[in-house]
């Protein structure tokens, strides 16, 4: 069967967040906080270990008071902010205002870069009449990020976990996404980087394909191979 719709994960699939050092440095500059370079590097490394950057490295250890919040962080905006600012507070930053400033920074278009082939792949899908949705486990509205990088006209629908109170791999979220793009799940390809969360699409009959969650400069063509699947007998899981 020909693929009539494609669902894309956001972070690690279509876009990638800046690294932790860039994230912290941008916030220090925005807030007028001056620190020695060695101190910036040290704090960035601690924030990285804590898993404080949404879309970045997962925490090595989730503190006991945050375990339940972490497990359901993408079910609401409040839980998402609480989980990530809670992780950031495991690191002693020089000013209390930096914790909220870091969280706000990660929601800005400047903090994200699309993968190099994302725009080209989305344009081909649009030209061929393939419906496109973005489905994400997230606690904030990513639409301004997509819009800020000029890709919003290439997306037909967004399904964000916090707006529905459920997270991938719950099949219900994938059903909502297929309905949003008006396509039967058996005609839909799910593309993501999380082999647990994104694999949930298979439960409702979607084909699934995975890409590697790599820095933007290390994955120039990770999405392009899916175009060869459009007219095939289906997109196999891999």
Description:
By secondary structure, the protein is α/β, with parallel strands linked by helices. It folds into two domains: 5-16 and 112-229, Rossmann fold (3-Layer(aba) Sandwich), CATH 3.40.50.1000; 18-110, no CATH class. The protein contains nine helices and seven strands; from the N terminus they run ββαααααβαβαβααββ. The chain has helices at 20-31, 37-50, 67-71, 77-88, 97-106, 118-127, 143-148, 161-164, 171-180, and strands at 5-8, 15-17, 112-114, 131-136, 157-160, 188-192, 207-210. The strands form two sheets. A five-stranded parallel beta sheet has the order 5-4-1-6-7, with helices on both faces. A two-stranded antiparallel sheet has the order 2-3. Helix 7 links the parallel strand 4 (131-136) and strand 5. Helix 1 packs across helix 5 and helix 4 (77-88) packs across helix 5. It is globular. The protein starts with a strand and ends in a 28-residue tail after the last strand. Mean pLDDT is 95; it is low at 234-238. InterPro entries: HAD-like_sf, HAD-SF_hydro_IA, HAD_sf.
In short:
By secondary structure, the protein is of the alpha/beta class. The protein is built from nine helices and seven strands; from the N terminus they run ββαααααβαβαβααββ. The protein folds into two domains: 130 residues, Rossmann fold (3-Layer(aba) Sandwich); 93 residues, no CATH class.
